[in-house]
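[scheduler] slot 2 assigned
[scheduler] job type: sequence-to-structure, two independent chains
[scheduler] chain ordering preserved from manifest
[runner] begin chain α
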Amino acid sequence: MPPASPQIYAVIVLYNQEPSKSQAVLAFTQALQQGPALNHRFRLLLYDNSAAAGDAESLFEYRHDPRNEGLATAYNYALERAIAEDSQWLLLLDQDTAVTLAYLQEVLALTLTLDADQRVGAIVPKLESAKGIKSPTLDFLEWLRRQMQFPRKRALFATREMYGLQEEQFSAFNSASVLRVAALQKIGGFPPEFWLDFLDIAVFHRLHGAGLTMFVMHSTLVHELSMDTKEFYEKQGGLARHRNLLAAMVRFVRMHGTPRDLWLTRAWLLRNALNLFTSARDKRFSLASLQQAFKLNPEAPRP
């Protein structure tokens, strides 16, 4: 007999996209149709940050929040709902992440297997773009330190073969991560100061600080990064997002890093400014990195 409440509470955060056109919603729905036994184990919330309400399917729980307060507010609401539903795990999904039946089946199997192992705060897949595996990666501070080493001694990202419990400090993208509800409660939920960018980095850093670790799955999902494309530096809103990302980076290093890490951040920003000057048509992107390098200002207006 199926449990009275779902074991895994999933949330897809939408912005300026109809639920019926969201790749994540469509893929999740298709996976549940292919594996109907999963229906009793997952509950899906669509949290819509768009200005106007979308065409929500009655099949899923739907919440419209036109304030658009970013990911942290949406995820904290989902965490509250997961607690109310007595769900042990919270699954985060971007609106463009296409899950597969195999991924959801592995998620279910691992949550059952690892439920009693309180060391495990998160279960994550590998996310791959055209440029290779992009998540998991080292904790940002360690990534920064190794990024600035010459020659670089160790890899910065997970390998395709990586599987199991990780002793080294890793971070992962929000999307497709499965977080233990009790672990999130332990660290106080999703920090609102990282309302959009660096939220995942801050959460995984705090999980590790609380003595929790990550379990890396066999599954690999396709996940394209808009910031890895030339189009990002030409589309409307790209510059504001770039500035917000830089501000969040500095905020994170100020909160969790050392004075040396701030100098490394400055060096990274200077290098980033140079790279963008040669690669981005709009030189304001390069100027934003240059300004942040000299100001190291942790605050910036929201896009």
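[runner] end chain α
[runner] begin chain β
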Amino acid sequence: MTRAELLDLFTPIYDEFVMIAFGATEMKHPQIFDVIVDPTKDWKYNAISGLGAWEEADEDSDEGLDHFVIGYEGTITPRKYRKYFYVTYEVNDQMEYAALKARIVRAKALGRGGAARLELLGAAVLIGAFGTITTGDGKYLCDDDHYKNPEETGTTYDNLLADAFSHDALETAEQQVDANFFDLDGLPMVTFAGKPNLIFPPALRGPVKRALSERADERPSTTLRDINVYAGKYDPIEWPWLAKAVGGSDTAWYINYPALGNLKMIKNTNTPQYASWLDNLKHRYYFDGWMYAYPGTSDWRGLFGSTGE
């Protein structure tokens, strides 16, 4: 058995190193997005209303008949993302076990890169919420004039917050949520939407922690000794992929209700796919990872955002 053949025996374990690194990477998008595994080419969605509050009806009458309102339809098509590398036979022949260690490092890097792509895809939805990502009604994801539904465009709702993050801005934001968080029938949604996320970049870590701290029995930064009503109310999510350094913003922040599931991450498989093979013509070992994924939004409801500027 040659040295190259000995190292060949280790080739099948590299997919394990890829998956270990992928799984060990802390990803925040599953806390924010409804992650759906669907093997089909396109994932289609549409919203459907309820039937609104019951109406008073006279005895022996057909009053109360209503119909469902169909919301905006759309399609999310997962796209292919791939990364691969190769190592020459000569590296194995001449470096022996040092090559094995180096390939493990590269395989783990391949797995981390897959996780990074998913995080970038998810963060891009929030980053673009104010100017590039649109919803079925043709408005930006965070906008001040979303239609109630396709049949009632005269009533609009506003999920674009206006202030830089602070304790007072959060209070103002909650008032705006209460005034604009209605379903297709115009019924309030906050009461059953579950615990919201408060999503922010690392630059806002201090202000958010001061506003939400579990130890903050009193309102921070005041002498009024008011009760801090926000302690424990939100699930804070600090997301490095929102930062200005990676194309986002150091001031934008978001309130998201993940229980509604309107932010989607569609994937063809739960984990990336991986393959490794030998090219005896070029004397190379190849290591290849790929996945199909893409995010989208089925409705603006459930997300409120501010540029913080």
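[runner] end chain β
[qc] chain β: The chain has one domain: 3-51+68-306.
[scheduler] slot 2 released
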